[in-house]
Amino acid sequence: MNYDELIEKMTPQMHQSIKTAIELSKWPDGKKMTAEQLDICLRAVIKYDQILPEEQRTGYIDRTRQDGSQKGVNPMEEQVIKFH
């Protein structure tokens, strides 16, 4: 089984557990994560997030107002910067 297959088999519970471990730098049993373990877990969370719908991804900010319109600017939209 390769890395991509492992990520595809990851459950939402596993994903959340890994995110919590990253936040605390500790495994659920209290053992401190090594730098290598932290790196592997960060990569796994990023890879797993890529297969999730945008609104379920880590760091997603809902910019929808109650009336359904978007507030703020679209970060993917090209913007012109003017210097005076």
Protein described:
α2 crosses α3 (35-49). This protein has 3 helices and no strands. The N and C termini lie far apart (58 Å). It is mainly alpha-helical. The mean pLDDT is 87. The chain has helices at 3-8, 12-24, 35-49. It has a domain at 3-55.
Query: Could you give the count of β-strands?
Result: 0
What does the largest sheet look like?
A: none
Task: Indicate the low-confidence ranges by residue numbers.
Answer: none
Number of helices: 3
| Amount of helix | 40-55%
Mean pLDDT: 87
State the separation between the terminal residues, measured CA to CA.
58 Å
This entry's quaternary arrangement is: single chain
- What is the percentage of strand-forming residues? under 5%
Order of helices and strands: HHH
Label the overall shape.
elongated
Q: Which structural class matches the secondary elements?
A: mainly alpha
- Computed Rg: 18 Å
